[in-house]
Amino acid sequence: MSSLQEGSDSSEEPQPGKAKSEFRNYTEGKLIDRVYNTYRLMHTHQTVEFVRRKSAQYGSCSQRRMSVMEALELLDQLVDESDPDVDFPNSFHAFQTAEGIRRAHPDKDWFHLVGLLHDLGKVLVLFGEPQWAVVGDTFPVGCKVQKSVVYGDSTFHENPDTKDPRYSTEYGMYQPGCGLDNVLMSWGHDEYMYQVMKFNKFALPKEAFYMVRFHSFYPWHAHGDYGHLCSEEDRHMLPWLRELNKFDLYTKQEELPDMQQLRAYYQGLIDKYCPGQLCW
Q1: Which of 107, 182, 191, 200 gets the most CB atoms within 10 Å of its CB?
Q2: What is the pTM of this model?
Q3: How many CA atoms lie within 13 A of 238 on its CB side?
Q4: Tens digit of each residue's pLDDT (9 = 90 or more) over 191-236
């Protein structure tokens, strides 16, 4: 696998339509009530028991069969209610992210595809799951909530795990440095899409699987919390997560891409790395 820096074009950093400091504003804005309510429900109901149940329910990838492009088209129907920055369907965001990566990393076609794939797990909403069980930042269940978790100081008071002595200490049910691969994350689109990729044996490098699985874990990759659970492998992968995050976050703008014009290029990548009808 080539290094992250190799072949990248720093002149093609994402150019957001507003100041970077204005992204992920969880204190004010026209969408803030919707966003807060989504996190309140998430932080009330995401428990160790809930995550284990959902993992068992969806881990067999037996919901339906469809192609990557068919899954992407389902996201035409989804507006992410946890996102304070956008109020348009998630399918546009997929192409915005992918195109940003494509401009900065023209030689890494597999990374372009990661940009397109990273949020596809949100099809869970179209399968009937509530948004609080699909979207938003992720966090480890089974241990003490860290300070950078969005609305963490006001939304966990009804979560039973916070009162369970097994789960309410710094390490909770984990060992120091156990690695994120051994940590139970809150259930959502990250873990689900990772399981879909693994089940269907996507022909992508391990960095791709890792980025999809943990891209919503902002408390770690953006704020440095939960480092006591991370392994050397996690720290090795961190630059890749942060690189994806630049495009995931800062390519969000009201000017929407022409998805039909881009479709042929990305269909070629799908045919190369994850073709045909897949199990979801």
Answers
A1: 191
A2: 0.91
A3: 19
A4: 999 999 999 999 999 999 999 999 999 999 999 999 999 999 999 9
